[in-house]
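Blinded run. Sample ID left blank on purpose so nobody reads anything into the name before looking at the predicted structure. Input follows.
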Amino acid sequence: MEQIFTCTVCPFGCELHVDLSGAEPIVTGHECARGKKYGIAEATNPVRTVTSTVLIDGISELHPNLKLLPVKVDKPIPKAMMFDGMRIIKTIKVAPPVKAGDIVYKDFLIPGVNLVAGRNI
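Blinded prediction complete.
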């Protein structure tokens, strides 16, 4: 079975053809070694970095327009888990103070993957 992807690891945007029918994946259409690695990973175990926002709880009158805190996972998660992750993110509220890089949700879907703050509040 052949899958076709557009490579995103460099500006070339190669059209990758990945054949998984044999014992080893065969990738064609790549201009660099990174494209081959990307094609195999995308065909066998696609991962994504989730970015979103969470509600800020108890914000003072000093910052009435500051209602959301940007967050992201510190390691990519399997693409199939993205919707589960977004369901969890919708339920999270953080209370100030929070510094950029602080863990907002430990072991987010997978042990060792954390949801971290993207800015100070």
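Unblinding after everyone has recorded impressions. Strands lie at 2-6, 15-19, 26-28, 47-48, 51-56, 68-73, 77-78, 93-94, 103-105, 115-117.
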